[in-house]
Design brief:
The chain is mainly beta. The chain is built from two helices and six strands; from the N terminus they run βββαβββα.
Length: about 100
């Protein structure tokens, strides 16, 4: 589930290069895992990604940061993250961006 989009985001301190950033989350075992996916600049528009879009994701059992998203396979699913007690973010900065 896409929870935030940052198209054309600056990449590091180099103001000439940009990237698209997707903030996503998925549910597994009564926990919400929040992820960050970096795409080449312009891919959000090219793929037609919108807030609250849901895509098929395959995540590794041993490491939640290893995942693969199929952007060609949209799902008609809604996952309300507020219904879950446990939420795991990649960093504290990531948590503050989402909240």
């Amino acid at each position: 589930m896409v929870e935030k989009l940052k198209p054309h985001s600056l990449k590091g301190k180099n103001f000439a290069s940009r990237k698209d950033v997707l903030y996503l989350y998925y549910e597994k075992n009564d926990t919400i895992f929040h992820l960050i996916e970096y795409l080449p600049d312009g891919q959000i528009e090219k793929l037609g990604i919108n807030l609250n879009d849901c895509f098929e994701i395959k995540a590794a059992k041993s490491d939640k940061n290893v995942f693969e998203i199929d952007f060609n396979n949209k799902k008609d699913t809604l996952i309300d993250k507020n219904n879950f007690e446990y939420q795991i973010y990649q960093t504290d900065i990531h948590k503050s961006i989402i909240e």
